[in-house]
């Protein structure tokens, strides 16, 4: 017990101390978080009328980010899997960082759920024994698997850190099976999220069985792309050294998952547009516009350029082998997938409506601010989690040791 | 700090008082305005404009017999579906309905010149009636007096020239319609007349498939039945070139444009793709 | 309960839409999203085929692969105008199709509800408990008929315009952030009365009755007329039937 209290105080003490750069970073994030809280207050006094969502297009930026971030959370498995299944040295060292990212992403998803709901004050209606849990609802399953994933990652991540902190050996009897469960679970969260929208025949744009694999592919491209970027930042700003081998492996994963994702997108385009049935209207709106409304066309084509550009860069040896240049295609892939999977997938699902009404989605300033705020909140948490984890991995925080400061 | 708080509080109180005063004055103005305007009775039409008008009134406080559309003047909502109805009378095929469950609005009340038909002109006296004569056959003859009274008669569409007045109107009792046996039919029961030719429509009407009924939906429930002429103009059933049984109406306003849409012009563009 | 609508008779006057609003206490504000209507009337073009168009199409000037009149919309296509506003209806070149909740026997919206706040009542209608709804809008996405609306803000309902006869699962005033839809005027039909839209339809295109009673008008329609269910291929089994004479 005393150990636990010391762990907590040491952890907090370590995390709170930092240089000017650290405080500036956290301060600016805090400002955005404050804005987010304000618009959340607005949304819960005025209602969703402050957003651009309508009865026609009732899922917008929030839902798009939610779907994307579930992918990022699942993407963390690209570190854990090679580390524990293939015993990849470089990955093993940093696997706990992947778990921290997963925790962050799941928390962000949950905040986006709060932002998305019409009545967030009633979310307890989903939780028995006070509420009713429905096993027939995909959203119910999604909440279940997301919470499970959060708990699994929390246990795995912090147990590992705890062992490092106290110097105790890891109890492999239950830790390793739990890690394996978490790996499979990661697939489940994104599969269920895909089922969430692909099980609706009312929305032909989403109603195909390719959706889960496409989700997984894009997730395993966007997730590790973000992780590479974060690793580069960690390498630059801390004493913690991440092996090139880990980054190399991640970039290989990004490359091929991105390649498959592009391939799947192209397949969909061919299948849908060759016959060009009424069911292709959503995709057609996305690519070329419908009834003269072209709001999402630039989004789609920028996503295409970003994704294909990133893929080519990843394949170019000069970029692929140069760790310094690697962040460029990573950022491109991340942005491209964010568009393709978010705005580019969710919004055109509603255009036209099932009875043929074509309208457009115009996200408001409130929505953008909320989104930025939640991302800021995510980075805030991520910074704290990563800083603490790195402190422990470096041995800066150790049971019985002096409370040290990070640079 | 405290000082500021007190000032703010005082300011707020002053503001509040001022606002209340202004608001009260405004309310007074509105009340005065409402009193000054004499309330005109709201009249709206049910099915066909000019043929089925109903005057709005309160059955009980805040519960009108009918709500009218401010845009088109059409009846939009029934507080009492049986307002102003009378029993339908004998109708073959509906004998099984409980007593008083089939109601209609009397058509004769809506026909302005009906009470005069049998007294003012077709009364059996006057120059053309001495000695009293009757049309010897039902052959079409232009009657300028009637055409000026009912303009639709000038080029009678009903039957496309194969039907003339006395196929439907009683020869001697001009405030009545006529059945196949030459017996009179009340203007309140036009279905008995129309069913002479439109048998399939009569059957559908009797079963509630054609036409309209309001009130209780159970098959033996109390209903107000809309009779043929409440919806169809018997003299112009085909509404000219449109060749449909129902006249054109002004539509109610379209739905609201969703957030961010400036107009609905995109709806007129057809999606074109190969 | 069952419903039938004669699409040959419908003239597109939208009186049902506004009767529904008067009966069911929908929000009627002016800001976008504050005005809610449960019934949508779709205007579809009758279409016209022209000789001049024969060679149009693809490839250009030949029209072999895609014929010249191919892009002429005709018939029931679920594609047209919802915001039409001519001086008088019905227009000669158009047909109209009102669409609202179909009260499916196998409703996709009920299946996706994570809190089971929307469910099928034994006598037919699919209802919503507004007090239990969390506003997640999954049901709106799952509905193939776009029958559901979200209250994006506190509904605007002037005191004088409110219908005081209400039902808990029906037309009681809703709150911010919950989903609502047609429930076949539960507050009327449970008392034996026709829904408001049936009562105002000037052409008598709307029919309502007890499907279990062979004498009811809806049973007679199923027996006598050609009937179809909208998007029957989705196996939602609507209890709302379209028919024509």
UniProtKB/TrEMBL annotation, chain A:
<dbReference type="GO" id="GO:0005886">
    <property type="term" value="C:plasma membrane"/>
</dbReference>
<keyword id="KW-1133">Transmembrane helix</keyword>
<feature type="transmembrane region" description="Helical">
    <location>
        <begin position="331"/>
        <end position="351"/>
    </location>
</feature>
<feature type="transmembrane region" description="Helical">
    <location>
        <begin position="299"/>
        <end position="319"/>
    </location>
</feature>
<feature type="transmembrane region" description="Helical">
    <location>
        <begin position="138"/>
        <end position="162"/>
    </location>
</feature>
<feature type="transmembrane region" description="Helical">
    <location>
        <begin position="246"/>
        <end position="266"/>
    </location>
</feature>
<dbReference type="InterPro" id="IPR005614">
    <property type="entry name" value="NrfD-like"/>
</dbReference>
<keyword id="KW-0472">Membrane</keyword>
<feature type="transmembrane region" description="Helical">
    <location>
        <begin position="61"/>
        <end position="84"/>
    </location>
</feature>
<feature type="transmembrane region" description="Helical">
    <location>
        <begin position="22"/>
        <end position="41"/>
    </location>
</feature>
<feature type="transmembrane region" description="Helical">
    <location>
        <begin position="174"/>
        <end position="200"/>
    </location>
</feature>
<keyword id="KW-1003">Cell membrane</keyword>
<protein>
    <submittedName>
        <fullName>Polysulfide reductase NrfD</fullName>
    </submittedName>
</protein>
<feature type="transmembrane region" description="Helical">
    <location>
        <begin position="212"/>
        <end position="234"/>
    </location>
</feature>
<feature type="transmembrane region" description="Helical">
    <location>
        <begin position="96"/>
        <end position="118"/>
    </location>
</feature>
From TrEMBL, chain B:
<protein>
    <recommendedName>
        <fullName>Cytochrome c7-like domain-containing protein</fullName>
    </recommendedName>
</protein>
<feature type="region of interest" description="Disordered">
    <location>
        <begin position="237"/>
        <end position="263"/>
    </location>
</feature>
<keyword id="KW-0732">Signal</keyword>
<dbReference type="InterPro" id="IPR036280">
    <property type="entry name" value="Multihaem_cyt_sf"/>
</dbReference>
<feature type="signal peptide">
    <location>
        <begin position="1"/>
        <end position="23"/>
    </location>
</feature>
UniProtKB/TrEMBL annotation, chain C:
<feature type="domain" description="4Fe-4S ferredoxin-type">
    <location>
        <begin position="124"/>
        <end position="153"/>
    </location>
</feature>
<dbReference type="InterPro" id="IPR050954">
    <property type="entry name" value="ET_IronSulfur_Cluster-Binding"/>
</dbReference>
<dbReference type="InterPro" id="IPR017896">
    <property type="entry name" value="4Fe4S_Fe-S-bd"/>
</dbReference>
<dbReference type="InterPro" id="IPR017900">
    <property type="entry name" value="4Fe4S_Fe_S_CS"/>
</dbReference>
<keyword id="KW-0004">4Fe-4S</keyword>
<keyword id="KW-0479">Metal-binding</keyword>
<protein>
    <submittedName>
        <fullName>4Fe-4S dicluster domain-containing protein</fullName>
    </submittedName>
</protein>
<dbReference type="Pfam" id="PF13247">
    <property type="entry name" value="Fer4_11"/>
</dbReference>
<keyword id="KW-0408">Iron</keyword>
<dbReference type="GO" id="GO:0046872">
    <property type="term" value="F:metal ion binding"/>
</dbReference>
<feature type="domain" description="4Fe-4S ferredoxin-type">
    <location>
        <begin position="1"/>
        <end position="30"/>
    </location>
</feature>
<keyword id="KW-0411">Iron-sulfur</keyword>
<dbReference type="Pfam" id="PF12800">
    <property type="entry name" value="Fer4_4"/>
</dbReference>
<dbReference type="GO" id="GO:0051539">
    <property type="term" value="F:4 iron, 4 sulfur cluster binding"/>
</dbReference>
